[in-house]
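Page 42, continued from yesterday. The earlier attempt failed because a stray header line got pasted into the input along with the sequence. Redoing it now with the clean sequence only.
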Amino acid sequence: MRAIIIDDEPNNIDNLRELLTRYCPAVSVAGHAGNADAGIELILKTRPELVFLDIQMPGKNGFDLLKSLSSYDFEVIFVTGFEQYGIQAIRFSAIDYLLKPIDPQELQQAVQRAEGKIAEKKQNAQLQNLMHLLMESRQKSEHRIALSSARETRFVKTSDIIRCVAENNYTAFFLRGGEKLLVSKPMFEYDETLTGYGFLRCHHSHLVNKLYIKSLLKEDSGYLLLEDGAKIPVSRMKKDAVRLALQNGL
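This time it went through. Structure tokens are written below.
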């Protein structure tokens, strides 16, 4: 698997090269670049299958680099020093990223996932989705979240999600039209991200889109009645927060 590294810090490049040699022998590093412009030239020259891309670089950052490209026929693993701007969008699009210092096991897992995607020889729709999010070319209600099931990765508008239910280490997404999609990630991975899109955590097992709340039923600690007829419990610990959120408007 032909890869390149784009990072403005030589020590980080050397460290990643060493980790790849030791833990990911299937990866061959075809070159490296120290800034976005040089990175674009290197991508066009080497046609890599995998790009390790630092987010924060002087001048143009990693996202600026990607915005300069017209197509994405490679996989990207982002590398960043801290939980900075853009991480939420990366999670939203189900793209891999590594925090520095890089953990060898996390590196191996990210590379294995990239190998699987490359083997499918598909255009990287997840990266395209990330670019749409970062460029804010659509209204927030039109943003799509990548939901990976056993069979596929679906891109679903947040406004089409009615609610989410935790099912052990999986999350069930209930969509407009009555469709249920079982996703192979626990719900806590979606809680923080979807909260920014008008979702309300009313129970440890339930996350509800406020667009579809019809009323608050005053039974026990309370229930949320949704427009599709679903009756969602409100936990005692969440009761005050739910009432406050509803008072502030749906």
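Notes: The mean pLDDT is 88.
Reminder to self: strip header lines before submitting.
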